[in-house]
Amino acid sequence: MADSEAKQCDIIVAEMRKEDQIRQAGYREQALKLFPHVCGRCTREFEGKKLRELTVHHRDYNHDNNPPDGSNWELLCLYCHDHEHTRGVQEQRSTDDSSDRQNKPSLAHSPFAALGDRFKPSE
C-alpha cells in the first residue's frame, strides 16, 4: 500500500472512530440520566470515577436503535456487558456436539484459514 493510500485509510478510520464515540456519548449520557447507576445484571452500584465502567447495552443488539425513552437500553458493567455479548457464542458451543465442533469454523470469518496452503511447495 502506498503512503498516500495508508494515510487516507488512517483518516477514514479516525473519522469513523470519532463518529462512533459521538454517537455512543449521546445515548450513553441519555441512558445515565434515565436509569439508576446500577448494573442491570450484577446490581453493582457505580458513582464517581467508577461510573465509566457502566456501559449501555442494546437489548436488540442494534446500536442504531436508540429510542428516546431508552426502551432498547440497559446499563451493564463492563464485565456483564462482555458476558452478554459472548453468551450466544457460549450457548452455541455447549449445544454443538464435539464432531460438529471440529468440522465447523469457530468464527464467521477466519483470516488465516488458507494460510497453510500458501506455505505448501508448488508442484
Describe the protein in words:
With 123 residues, the chain is mainly alpha-helical. The chain has a domain at 33-93. Helices cover 49% and strands 8% of the residues. The chain contains four helices and two strands. It has helices at 3-34, 78-95, 98-103, 115-118, and strands at residues 54-58, 73-77. It has a two-stranded antiparallel sheet with strand order 1-2.
Keywords, separated by commas or semicolons:
about 120 residues, 4 helices, mainly alpha, two-stranded antiparallel sheet
Report the order of strands and helices. Answer: HEEHHH
Within the largest sheet, what's the order of strands?
Answer: 1-2
Rg result: 21 Å
Strand proportion, as a percent range, falls in 5-15%
The total strand number stands at: 2
Largest sheet: 2 strands, antiparallel
Rounded mean pLDDT score:
80
Give the proportion of residues in helices: 40-55%
Number of helices: 4
Question: What class would the helix/strand composition place it in?
Answer: mainly alpha
Catalogue the unreliable spans.
none
Shape: extended
Distance between the termini: 30 Å
Structure summary:
This protein is mostly helical and about 120 residues long.
Helices and strands in order:
Elements: H1 3-34, E1 54-58, E2 73-77, H2 78-95, H3 98-103, H4 115-118
Antiparallel strand pairs: 1-2
